[in-house]
Design a protein that fits this description.
Elements (H helix, E strand, L loop, with lengths): L13 H10 L3 E5 L12 H4 L15 H16 L1 H21 L3 E5 L13 E3 L2 E3 L2 H4 L4 E6 L12 E6 L7 H8 L5 E5 L7 E2 L2 E5 L14 E5 L16
Parallel strand pairs: 1-2, 2-5, 5-6, 6-7, 7-10, 9-10
Antiparallel strand pairs: 3-4, 8-9
Helix pairs in contact: 3-4
Amino acid sequence: MSSQITLLSTVANAKIEKTNAVVGGNHLYAEMSLMPNNTICAGSKAAQCMTPCLKNAGRGVFSNVQLSRQRKTDFWMSNPTEFKAQLVTELEALVKKASKQGKTARVRLNCFSDISWELQVCNRNGKPFKGIPQAFPEIEFYDYTKHASRLGKTPENYSLTFSYSGVDTYKNQVKLAQTSSANMAVVFHGKELPVTFMSRRVIDGDLHDARIDDPKGVIVGLRAKGPARKDVSGFVVRV
């Protein structure tokens, strides 16, 4: 295993740190931030979101943060088997940490990636599992995804929010997502979020990252940050 790289964190991502502080309560939130590319975030090309991606916002402007994320991506790309073995070890440690605090662990594995973790075969305590969430039923996993085909097909302990884009090359994904019951995350330009979008109520997704607790059938409104403020592709919605 790579002793020089730590995959999970409860404080490295500002929004996760804020979530633990604001709505942590009975839950301990952790995340994993990889540097996105067209392989681990394949939907980014159709959605045209690689340039305005939050990878370059917040703490992502610092070179040491970028290097850390890139090292994790390189680790995944070069040796996914060893990567998953280390991830399992760190998730085990997180479960123990949460248990000592009397909390349930909640984990977001795709902060800047879109890997189908439910399909990543792994081993826990010598037993094989079809995916990471299946190996840890005591953890509540959640992510955003640009793959509408994943919606409704993940394990019960893995919640997905669909990531919207208004560009023409992404319309088929949006249409497919609309046939599911999944919530949609939409990035809006400006400080004010609309009351409704696509005939759905808009909630403020910037208050915290506890997407698991969102009401059903809503738009999760996110304000454009960093390079996204200048986006004119259609990924960022202007209303």
